[in-house]
Design goal:
With 150 residues, the protein is mainly alpha-helical. It contains nine helices and five strands.
């Protein structure tokens, strides 16, 4: 049985910047993203890393969070993509979210959702021999301007 995984834009963009978006498909088969994440990466991010890759990936499924009131409540403290991702995760009983923003992670965890970050995804990929070097991937992310949690 495949897992239900929801990704935020930072993971998608970060992995695209280092040419490692394929990792998500290889590990998880498919990923759900809320409409707000699609809009941020593909529409607002047109011409930037991730836009075309996300738009053209048939294994990335867009889905709208139904509980708009809950999304609106979370928007008081989180971005649109993070807010929709959390509500979508609750609605579809996701196995986990891929978040890199500390506040979004904390909010999701307070709501009982499981969260991993992009670094954990890279570590899993390295453990499955999908990438040659975990350290090199982290260096590439750092060089691409990725903001790590500290």
């Amino acid at each position: 049985m495949s897992k239900i995984v929801i990704a935020d834009s930072s993971c998608l963009i970060g992995l695209c910047k280092i040419d490692k978006l394929f990792i998500l498909e290889k590990i998880f088969k498919n990923i759900l993203i809320p409409e707000a994440v699609y809009h941020e990466v593909v529409i607002k991010g047109k011409g930037r890393p991730g836009a075309e890759e996300v738009k053209n990936s048939d294994w990335i499924e867009r889905r709208k969070a139904k509980n708009r009131l809950a999304v609106k409540a979370l928007r008081m403290s989180l971005g649109p993509g993070e807010s929709e991702a959390i509500i979508l995760a609750e609605e579809c009983k996701a196995d986990f979210l891929i978040f890199d923003d500390l506040k979004a992670r904390q909010t999701a965890e307070e709501l009982g959702l499981s969260v991993v970050g992009t670094v954990a995804v890279l570590k899993k990929a390295w453990g499955k021999n999908m990438i040659e070097s975990f350290e090199a991937a982290l260096t590439d992310l750092d060089n691409a301007g990725f903001r790590f949690l500290v």
